[in-house]
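User: I'm preparing a small set of examples for a lab meeting where we compare how different chains pack in three dimensions. I only have the primary sequence for this one, and I'd like the structure in token form so I can line it up with the others. Please keep the answer compact; I'll paste it straight into my notes.
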Amino acid sequence: MTLEGEDELDAIRRRKMAEIQRNAVDEQAVDEQRRSAEIERARRQQILRQILTPEARERLSRVRLVKPEMAENVEGQLIQLAGMGKVGRQITDQDVKSILDRFNTSKKETKIERR
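Assistant: Understood. Below is the structure token output for the 115-residue chain.
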């Protein structure tokens, strides 16, 4: 092999090594984001377990299947209220129903009539 060929080979190896290192850093960042998201989900679930009755949690999980954004909003507000100390007792299924009703009435519905 010539000196020029060895230089090219070294350059290729350096580029490949740099690419591998960049990928490793990217993977670490993704793993870190995933871990922090899992920790946040676990923290939210723990708070919800404390402030909601099992029936209320079940209702919210069913709502999440149909309207994930609405469930996120309700859970977020409940967690915020709990953080401010405004939740003095466990929230029941009936309480969750009334909260969900308030969310539903605040949205305007569009009706299309066929003739």
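A couple of notes for your slides: The radius of gyration is 26 Å. The helical segments are 3-51, 54-66, 68-83, 93-105.

User: Perfect, thanks.
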